[in-house]
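Curious: why these numbers?
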Amino acid sequence: PGRHLDLTAKSMDAEVRMGGVLRLAQGETASLTVETHGVENAEIEWVAGANAPALRLSSQELAQLDGSRRQTVTLTGVGRPYWVRANIRNQEGELVLIGSPVYIEEK
């Protein structure tokens, strides 16, 4: 019950949640998945730090019956640290959930 947001990053050899550090070698990729529950027609807004490369949408699932949504983007190691987090907005565009970042560092 209630609103919920979870953020998980997975590489070939590690998995971290919000607030965690994922180490990626230059060119190595990982998936970053946000899951939200309890927000009807949720809009996911990705927010990234200045050093972050462009995020590429990998997959998206929408289940309106229970107000859940899942979206995955691909992260890439770029040889410098950066962070990525997600905001969740309701159908009126109001910010209703703010995720803590996942931090990407050089391996």
DSSP finds no helices and ten strands in the chain. The beta strands are 4-10, 15-17, 21-24, 29-37, 43-48, 56-63, 68-76, 82-89, 95-98, 102-106.
